[in-house]
Every structure is written in C-alpha cells, then in structure tokens.
Amino acid sequence: MPLTDSIFAFQIDKTDGKARSGLLRTAHGKVAMPVFLPCGTVKGVTPDQLRAADVQMVLANAYHLMLRPGADVVAEMGGLHKMMAWAGPILTDSGGYQVFSLAHLRRIDDHGVTFRSHIDGAPVRLTPQRAIEIQQLLASDIIMQLDECPAASATKDQVAAAVRRSAAWAARCKVTWDAADRRALSGRRNEQALFAIQQGGVFDDLRAQSAEALVALDLPGYAIGGLSVGEGPEAMRRVLDAVDAQFPADRPRYLMGVGEPRDILAAVARGIDMFDCVLPTRNGRNGQAFTWTGRLRLRNARWASDPTPLDENCDCYTCRNFSRGAIRHFFAAKEIAGPTLVSFHNLHFFAQLMDAIRRAIESGDLASKTDQWLAQMYHQGEDRNGDNG
C-alpha cells in the first residue's frame, strides 16, 4: 500500500532481514515505523508531555470508553482527538481483550458476548458490529475487530473455536466498516483503517488457519493477538517466526500487548511494525525507570542521596532536571511528581528505543545493535544496577 492520495497508507523504505522501517500515513499525520504506542489516556501525563517525549501515536481503550463516559458522549465532545487534546494518530482496540479477561462476568456465543460492567455490574452486549460502531463514534484512526482471545491455558479445541469465531467476527466487522465507506459524503475512503486480529495460541496450524482467513478479507492491516498472555518468550518468538510468510508484506503488522524491550527487538527482527503496552507508564507509576543500562527501582534506599539522573545518556526533561535521589524522595513522600516524572522518562526511552531500531534497520546493522543493547540492558537476568531485569 504505497503512499498515494488515499488517507491511510503504508510504505516500507528499508529492510534488514525480515525487519522493516517505513512510514504509516493516517488522517492525523504520519508515523515512522516500527512504532511503540503508549496505552490509554496515559495516566498522569499531559498531551504536551507526550509530544515532548516524542510519542507519535497512542492507543485508547474502547472497552473503558464505552462504559465511561460512553461512546456517544465522546462523539458529542468531538471525538477522541478533541476530548484528549491530542492531534496525532490514535488506535482504538475493540474491547475484546478486556471482555474476555472478565471470565466470571461474561457469556459468549457466536453472535457476540454479554458481560457485566466491572464498574456497576450493569449488563452490556457487545457484537462485532457494535464494536465497530463504538470505534466509529470514538473517531480513531485505526480500529480493531472484535475477537476472542483465549487464555494461555486453553485447550487446542478451545483455541480452534476462538480462531473460527474470530474469523467470522472479522468478516462481520468488515461489513460494518465497508458500510461507513459507502455512507462517506466526501467520496473518499473511510478515514478509519480496520485491522483484523490473528488468534491461534501457540498452535502453528491454528495460527496459519487464522491468518489465511483474515488475509482473504484484504484489510489495511493485521494484528497478532493472543500472545503475552503467559505462553513465555520462546513460544512467542516461535509464533512470530511464521508471521512474515503469513501476512502481506505491504500491510502493517501489529503485535498487541507486548512492550518488554527484548521482546520488541525479537519481534522487529521477525517483521513486526507496531507495538503497544502499559509497561512504560504502569511501571513508571510504581517507581521503575527504563534505561539503556538496565532498570532502576527508585523505591530502593540505595538511591536516597544519588545525585545522578535516571540515565546520563538521556536528554528528556526528567533527566535534565532531576536526580535519582530527588525522584526517590517524591515516591517516598507520595508526591504525584514522582510517577509523572518517571512515566515521562519511560515514554521518552521507548520512543528513543524505536528511533534507534529504525536507524539500525536503515543502516543494516540491527542484529549487531540488538546484541549490544541486550548486553547493556540485561545482564544474566539482572540489570547493571543490581535489580532484577
């Protein structure tokens, strides 16, 4: 899908083995790929701070938004971009993962899923069509199909059923998405791009079956779902080994819910372009900072009087202005500045990691750079500062 006059487009500029660097264009701007998407409204961090951290694109959670404040309310406020004061691209998930994580609160059938809100217990019905309608009201740039994400402990028969159901739901999502195209008054293609989601657990034949059914729908992009749910890094990498042959080279590939740096590096080398995870901000709120030489756990007493920045090689606002000792004090005193400063630094770190990955692909030395970065960040399961990696 080369960049043309269409609204959504993807181009590959350089490759290094299976790794790709390029450009994604959306209605709200261009994104350099590979890219990492922070999740949600990014707690404790303002849109200006996101931009200052070089964040290109964010993910918003359709499940939470449909429950509160409601997709209709978001639409009345002008859509997610207006509500969040974020001018850049936004990807919304369908809510499927959150629904299926509430096993004790939901009932699934071939037409959709009925569940109880975790907020007030009210019954909610979510179908493939409704998942698309909700995301259309949110007015995000990339929308996801409703899928069934089985647990890592699911049997092969259960995973096979989820593959069949997810493929059928993807087709129904496309019907609703196509209808929006036909209604478009501008005569242009829908400004939202629909991505399908592969399932199949760790079963090679089910993964291939899922990919074949989804590729037949000829959608703008494809996601790899059902990983990072407890299967372990080796199983994840084995699944990703097949991705390059399973999905079209000219469409973006999105690995959902993965944010550990070593997993990102392994996935990029296998042809993945997009990632999302709560790791930078969730860990930041809990006092854990990512650096090029390992992680810092800032609640540890060893940092109480340390005058150095989180990372001496980082030029973010946090590292230019605050020491490890000062930030540890903020956490000890329960000052909101602590979680905000570390979250901001972590977002900047992930943006810089992706930028370094893109440059390594362009120069053709991703493999050697990956070995160097892993040696710096992970030291036999421990980081350079003595904390577990």
Model description:
With 389 residues, the chain is an alpha/beta fold. It has 2 domains: 33-251 and 260-273, Queuine tRNA-ribosyltransferase-like (TIM Barrel, Alpha-Beta Barrel), CATH 3.20.20.105; 284-377, no CATH class. 41% of the residues lie in helices and 19% in strands. It is built from 16 helices and 16 strands. The chain has helices spanning 47-52, 62-67, 71-76, 80-84, 96-101, 128-138, 156-183, 204-215, 233-240, 243-246, 261-268, 279-285, 317-321, 324-332, 337-363, 366-377; strands at residues 9-16, 19-26, 29-33, 35-38, 58-60, 90-92, 106-109, 112-116, 123-126, 142-144, 193-198, 221-224, 253-255, 274-277, 288-291, 294-297. The strands form 4 sheets. It has an 8-stranded parallel β-sheet. Strands 1-2-3 form a 3-stranded antiparallel β-sheet. A 3-stranded antiparallel β-sheet has the order 7-8-9. It is globular, with a radius of gyration of 21 Å.
Tell me briefly what this model is:
By secondary structure, the protein is an alpha/beta fold. It has 16 helices and 16 strands. Strand 2 and strand 3 form a beta hairpin.
